[in-house]
């Protein structure tokens, strides 16, 4: 059996005395798309932040392609850049042009030449459908465009998997669709994705696995057809009725 | 460029009015007379050393301040303590005692170590100004680095940048823009504090004024000119910083 792209086994994490993650078990196969939802404070962001080492877990095991993540500095450095991350607040570098945002990682972390890095950057800008914004500054773009640049920036590292931490939560409603369209495109191209989101339309369309978290636990985990039509727990039913109602 | 000149004329005009009462004796620095011109040239020629000492000290302080500031951001307590001890210790020493210690004391330490490193007034002043100022520069860096959102560092990490690359390409370029005004303030402070170099024999602006006062007995006029000399220097620096701010700020927003 081939190694799973991402594997979490009995992962526990505390912030001080606060137990944020309780025995998290999650396996994401290569090319698989997992959508994590749950009320705020349920620990869903912390899960993805542990996967790419922005946070350390204290107990349990996280493996990427079968390689265990430790807190050793070299292991952290080798993981970051292998697993891309798209943030709620975009986190583009405001002092750099769109093109420079995209080429920074490939040139500095991977030692690519500027010409190659720019070729690659333009290819991915094309893919997120903003080929003509390369020379603008991030602040000149709309929120939706900025988030697509952020996705392109992650793609420029040609990551093995892409993590999304509420990628559309900071966007105006009319810009959500353009970002989700790009994400659906990535999903169809076979990218391994872990997405924290409340966009259930998107989840139905692309998810192979749905995960519902509450109070630091995975409460429910199932295929989307079961998840939406037949939720097993009261907590999950309540949550779904709340976010699907309007 | 117009404003400093205007101010200068205003000041000279005002004081000139009072000369009829016999309080003032501008002849001592009147550039239209031969003796006055010699005196003015003597005073102004200190400008070069004042500028040179200040610029070199500021340059060292900007580098040293960063070297001191970075351990303060470390996740390891030992490094943060190193930073705190340096900042608290250095910024508590008044400039004049430190200048005496560096100029008269440090060579003795060097000698006891078998090193033959003479400290002349020029380098004594620069070392003192730079070290003294670096504690303040370090604190300015700290505030600048801390003002950059945490998401910037995280985004840099997720595209594989290491600590040094994150600092160099992501955090510092943004921090520097924000700390330019307080850094400029520090530079102005250094220019003014360089006057202390006069007490260890450095022939900069203040020392020359003192020497001329001793021979001409005209402290009011000579020290007035001295103040105007510093005023002009500081106004030029302010204009330069505003230009730099406009240039650096223009591409970030809008």
Could you explain how this protein is built, in words?
By secondary structure, chain A is of the alpha/beta class. Chain A is built from 9 helices and 10 strands. In chain A, the strands form 2 sheets. A 6-stranded mixed β-sheet of chain A has the order 6-7-8-3-9-10, sandwiched between helices. Chain A has a 4-stranded antiparallel β-sheet with strand order 2-1-4-5, covered by helices on one side. In chain A, strand 4 (59-64) and strand 5 (67-68) form a beta hairpin. The mean pLDDT of chain A is 92. Chain B has 254 residues and is an all-alpha fold. Chain B is built from 10 helices and no strands. Chain B has helices spanning 2-17, 34-44, 47-72, 77-91, 95-112, 121-146, 150-158, 163-193, 205-216, 219-249. In chain B, helix 6 packs across helix 8 (163-193). The model of chain B has no long low-confidence stretch (mean pLDDT 89).
What's the short version?
Helices cover 38% and strands 24% of the residues of chain A. Chain A is α/β, with parallel strands linked by helices and 246 residues long.
Estimate the strand proportion of chain A: 15-25%
Query: Structural class given helices, strands, pairing of chain B?
Result: mainly alpha
Strand line-up in the sheet with most strands of chain A: 6-7-8-3-9-10
Fraction of residues in helix of chain A: 25-40%
Biggest pleated sheet of chain A: 6 strands, mixed
Number of strands of chain A: 10
Q: First CA to last CA of chain B: what distance? A: 28 Å
Shape of chain B: flat
Q: What do the pLDDT scores of chain B average to?
A: 89
Total count of strands of chain B: 0
Low-confidence stretches of chain A: none
Counting copies of identical and different chains, the oligomeric state is: heterodimer
What's the arrangement of secondary structure elements?
The complex is a heterodimer of chains A (246) and B (254).
Chain A: E1 6-15, E2 18-28, E3 33-37, H1 44-51, E4 59-64, E5 67-68, H2 73-79, E6 83-86, H3 98-109, H4 114-127, H5 143-155, E7 161-165, H6 173-188, E8 192-196, H7 200-206, E9 209-214, E10 217-222, H8 224-229, H9 234-244
Parallel strand pairs in A: 3-8, 3-9, 6-7, 7-8
Antiparallel strand pairs in A: 1-2, 1-4, 4-5, 9-10
Helix pairs in contact in A: 3-4, 3-5, 4-5, 5-6
Chain B: H1 2-17, H2 34-44, H3 47-72, H4 77-91, H5 95-112, H6 121-146, H7 150-158, H8 163-193, H9 205-216, H10 219-249
Helix pairs in contact in B: 1-10, 2-9, 3-4, 3-6, 3-8, 4-6, 5-6, 6-8, 7-8, 8-10, 9-10
């Amino acid at each position: 059996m081939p190694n799973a792209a991402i594997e979490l086994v009995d992962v526990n994490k505390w912030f001080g005395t606060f137990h944020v993650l309780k025995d998290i078990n999650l396996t994401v196969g290569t090319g698989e798309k997992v959508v994590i939802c749950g009320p705020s404070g349920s620990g869903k962001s912390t899960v993805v932040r542990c996967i790419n080492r922005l946070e350390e877990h204290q107990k349990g095991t996280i493996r990427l392609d079968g390689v265990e993540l430790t807190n050793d500095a070299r292991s952290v450095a080798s993981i970051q850049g292998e697993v891309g991350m798209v943030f709620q607040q975009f986190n583009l570098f405001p002092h750099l042009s769109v093109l420079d945002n995209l080429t920074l990682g490939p040139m500095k972390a991977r030692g690519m030449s500027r010409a190659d890095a720019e070729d690659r950057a333009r290819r991915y800008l094309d893919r997120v459908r903003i080929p003509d914004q390369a020379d603008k500054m991030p602040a000149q773009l709309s929120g939706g465009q900025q988030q697509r640049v952020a996705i392109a920036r992650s793609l420029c590292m040609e990551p093995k998997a892409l993590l999304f931490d509420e990628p559309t939560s900071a966007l105006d409603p009319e810009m959500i669709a353009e970002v989700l369209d790009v994400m659906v495109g990535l999903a169809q191209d076979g990218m391994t994705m872990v997405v924290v989101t409340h966009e259930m339309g998107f989840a139905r369309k692309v998810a192979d696995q749905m995960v519902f978290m509450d109070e630091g636990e995975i409460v429910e985990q199932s295929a989307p057809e079961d998840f939406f039509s037949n939720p097993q727990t009261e907590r999950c039913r309540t949550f779904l009725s709340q976010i699907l109602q309007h | 460029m117009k404003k400093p000149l205007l101010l200068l004329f205003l000041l000279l005009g005002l004081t000139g009015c009072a000369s009829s009462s016999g309080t003032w004796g501008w002849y001592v620095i009147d550039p239209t007379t031969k003796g006055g011109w010699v005196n003015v040239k003597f005073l102004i020629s200190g400008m070069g050393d004042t500028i040179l000492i200040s610029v070199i000290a500021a340059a060292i302080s900007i580098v040293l301040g960063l070297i001191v500031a970075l351990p303060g951001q470390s996740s390891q307590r030992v490094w943060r303590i190193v930073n705190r001890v340096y900042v608290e210790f250095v910024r508590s020493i008044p400039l004049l005692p430190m200048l005496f210690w560096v100029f008269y004391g440090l060579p003795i330490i060097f000698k006891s170590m078998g090193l033959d490193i003479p400290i002349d007034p020029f380098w004594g002043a620069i070392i003192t100004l730079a070290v003294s100022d670096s504690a303040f520069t370090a604190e300015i860096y700290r505030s600048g680095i801390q003002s950059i959102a945490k998401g910037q560092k995280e985004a840099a990490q997720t595209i594989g940048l290491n600590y040094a690359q994150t600092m160099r390409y992501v955090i510092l370029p943004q921090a520097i823009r924000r700390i330019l005004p307080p850094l400029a303030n520090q530079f102005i402070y250094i220019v003014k504090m360089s006057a202390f170099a006069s007490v260890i024999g450095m022939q900069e602006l203040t020392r020359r004024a003192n020497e001329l006062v001793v021979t001409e007995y005209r402290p009011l006029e000579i020290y007035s000119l001295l103040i105007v000399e510093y005023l002009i220097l500081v106004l030029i620096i302010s204009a330069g910083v505003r230009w730099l701010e406009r240039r650096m700020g223009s591409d970030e927003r809008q």
